[in-house]
Amino acid sequence: MASEVRAGTPAAGTTGVKGTQGRSVTGTRKRMAAAFLLPALVLLGALVVYPIGYSVHRSFFDKSGDFTGFGNYVTLFTDDTILTAIRNNAIWVVLAPTIATALGLIFAVLTERIRWGTAFKLLVFMPMAISMLAAGIIFRLVYEQDPERGALNAVWVGVHDSFAESSAFPKAHPGQESPLKPGGGGSFITRTTVAAGEPVALPLVGVPKEQMPGEAAPAEAAAAEPGKVTGTAWQDFTLGKGVGERNAPDASESGYPGITIEAVKDGKVVESTKAAADGTFELSAKAVGAQLRLPASNFREPYNGVDWLGPDKVLPFIGVNFVTLSVILAYVWMWAGFAMVLIAAGLAAIPRELLEAARVDGANEWQVFRRVTVPLLAPVLAVVLVTLMINVLKIFDLVFIIAPGDVRDDANVLALQLYNSFVDRDSGVASAIAVLLFLLVVPVMAFNVRRLRREVRR
């Protein structure tokens, strides 16, 4: 009969292999599959599941091992140091992935059409080959406030001094029995008014000989000029030779070249001049009856740049301080290349016909980028953002190395606080922080898995 099945011929729906019972669709025995998976499952349980479970269990006990319930979790949201770490982690999650992804997108788009784009991408990606430890050491040196050691401040101070040169006499001030007195705001002014034909002495002390300007010449007493006001501004001290005659220039003392002298009447500057190399100066008849003032600009401290690793707020409205922003920039330096490479790969997969069609329809390059390129790159941008968000939630190395000890609490993050809690032998709070980090990562991972499944269904 037609319905009969010949011996040895598999019935419909069977695999064609003898003894298919107990086998999977592919013909592999389930027990054999389980045997191969068992080592991986054991490792997964020992290295992932057990630590998570133990951390959750330990988070309910205090540092002495006594059960405390949710006390450690209450500490997370009441302790100022941990709250700073949580706030900084939120700042990290918002700023670092966004800046790194934006830079990666810009680099990928701008280097797409240039001949040396590959070489540029290689240079941008190279920091990924450096460990966090090495990058932290590099940027700790880059951010040094001393311009002689810190590369960033060396450049910053050079640019600043090009527009606002620092004074050569930052430590200068009047000595004892000086005819000068403080004039407010860091300036100094004569105690009495000046008269024509009577040289004025403006003695100062406090500038080390090695810091005097190279053009400084031996101080000279100014000659009297009828109808004019003359005088000398000089360093009234000679190291190792006593004080000489006080408030009078000596041959062994140096003039203050370039120092500014102002004639002030009724609070208004009527005339100003600068001293010569030997400290002598001359004012016209306008200065007769005025007080002579040495303005505060003569004594401005040298500009030493920005305290990149200091606690000062750079974005006070969201609580971002310099040290946190500096560490974030170091992270971006490392990971912008990662974002650029992934985005460049996605950019290469975009059909050129779509871009050309948009240009033919009259769109300019900005419109093509905003309305065509970015929407088509949305899946890749999501991958980069999610990856970097997970990465920054666990940031530890850069903060630990770059932030100096006195401001480390201002740059604190959860992973660093977890380490500090273990150092303090408070494993209960440390476990609670670990659980909090796990709970923060889970939603991001769930979003990533859901997005990947959508991509597969497409």
TrEMBL record:
CDD domains: TM_PBP2 (cd06261). It is found in: Cell membrane. Residues 1-24 are annotated as: Disordered. It comes from the Bacteria. The chain crosses the membrane at residues 33-53, 90-110, 122-143, 328-350, 376-403, 428-449. It is a multi-pass membrane protein. Pfam families: BPD_transp_1. Keywords: Cell membrane, Membrane, Transmembrane, Transmembrane helix, Transport. Residues 86-448 form the ABC transmembrane type-1 domain. Belongs to the binding-protein-dependent transport system permease family. This is Sugar ABC transporter permease. It comes from Streptomyces luteolus.
